[in-house]
Write a structure and sequence with these properties.
The chain is α+β, with helices and mostly antiparallel strands and 241 residues long. It is built from 9 helices and 9 strands. The chain has 2 domains: 64 residues, Winged helix-like DNA-binding domain superfamily/Winged helix DNA-binding domain (Arc Repressor Mutant, subunit A, Orthogonal Bundle); 148 residues, Chorismate lyase-like (Chorismate lyase). The strands form 2 sheets. It has a 6-stranded antiparallel beta sheet. A 3-stranded antiparallel beta sheet has the order 1-3-2.
C-alpha cells in the first residue's frame, strides 16, 4: 500500500494530466488541498514536492502554486539517468536472488558504499536476467540494505522483480531523494565469471549506486558488474532553456 502522500501525488498528477488543473492556472493552497482530500498539511506538502520534482508545478512565496506542464518532464527511455529509468529497467528484467546474508561493512566496502565502517547491512546477491536471453545474465548485483529494511522485504525480494527502493518506500515510507552513481571500468571478478557466463577478468562496467532519503541518509546501496558486451550506459545532456 502506498503512503498517503504518494496517493495524493498520483491524484494531483492525474488531475493535471486530464486538464482539471490547466497549465498556467493556480493550484489550490496547501490548506485547501488538505481540506479537499482529508489529509494533513504535511502530507500535502510531501505530495506537492513529488509533483514539483516532475516539473508539473512551481511553488513560490506569495505567488502560490502554479501548474507549469501537463506531463512529467522525464519520459521512459533506454537510459539509466533517472529513478524512472531504473524502474523501467527493473520491470523488463528478472531478479534471480542467489543469497541473502547479514554482513559488517569492512573499511574498503564502507568507503565504496559511503557508510560507516563496521555498520551492519543485509546483503542480497543476485543476477539481473533478460528473459529472452537467460543464459547470459545482464549483470551481477550486490544489494546492501539496512537490516531492519532488508528483513522487512526479504520475502518480496525473492518473489518480485520490481525496483527494491520502490518496495522500501511502500513498506517503510523511505523516499528516494536522489541516487548517486559512480561508474568505473573493471575486470570481471573470478567469483562472478561462472554465474555471469563470462571470462574472468573480461571487460566490464561496475556501477555503484547510493540511494539517499529525504534526510540525506543512505538506506540502500548497490554494486553491479555488467559484462561489456551486454549493457550500454546511455544518457542525454540538454541545455537549460
Amino acid at each position: 500500500m502506498k503512503p498517503r502522500y504518494a496517493e495524493l501525488a498520483d491524484k494531483l498528477i492525474q488531475a493535471i494530466g486530464d486538464g482539471t488543473f490547466q497549465v498556467g492556472s493556480a493550484l489550490p493552497s496547501e490548506v485547501d488541498l488538505s481540506t479537499q482530500y482529508g489529509v494533513s498539511r504535511a502530507t500535502v506538502r510531501s505530495a506537492l514536492e513529488r509533483v514539483q520534482e516532475l516539473g508539473l508545478i512551481s511553488r513560490r512565496k506569495r505567488a502560490g502554486i502554479r501548474v507549469e506542464a501537463s506531463k512529467p518532464r522525464v519520459a521512459f527511455e533506454q537510459s539509466m539517468s533517472s529513478v524512472e529509468d531504473l524502474i523501467q529497467f527493473a520491470v523488463v528484467t528478472e531478479r534471480h536472488v542467489q543469497s541473502v546474508t547479514e554482513i559488517s561493512a569492512s573499511p574498503p566496502l564502507a568507503e565504496q558504499l559511503g557508510v560507516a565502517t563496521g555498520s551492519r547491512w543485509l546483503r542480497t546477491e543476485m543476477l539481473r536476467v533478460d528473459p529472452a536471453k537467460p543464459d547470459k545474465p545482464i549483470c551481477w548485483t550486490d544489494v546492501y540494505l539496512e537490516p531492519l529494511i532488508g528483513t522487512g522485504i526479504k520475502k518480496e525480494l525473492r518473489k518480485s522483480s520490481g525496483l527494491i527502493c520502490e518496495m522500501v518506500e511502500q513498506r517503510f515510507g523511505r523516499v528516494v531523494r536522489e541516487v548517486r552513481q559512480e561508474i568505473r571500468a573493471v575486470g570481471i571478478p573470478a567469483r562472478l565469471a561462472k554465474p555471469l557466463g563470462a571470462e574472468a577478468d573480461g571487460h566490464a562496467l561496475e556501477i555503484t549506486r547510493h540511494y539517499v532519503d529525504e534526510r540525506g541518509v543512505v538506506f540502500e546501496a548497490t554494486v553491479s558488474v555488467f559484462p561489456a558486451d551486454r549493457f550500454t550506459y546511455a544518457f542525454q545532456l540538454r541545455r537549460q532553456e
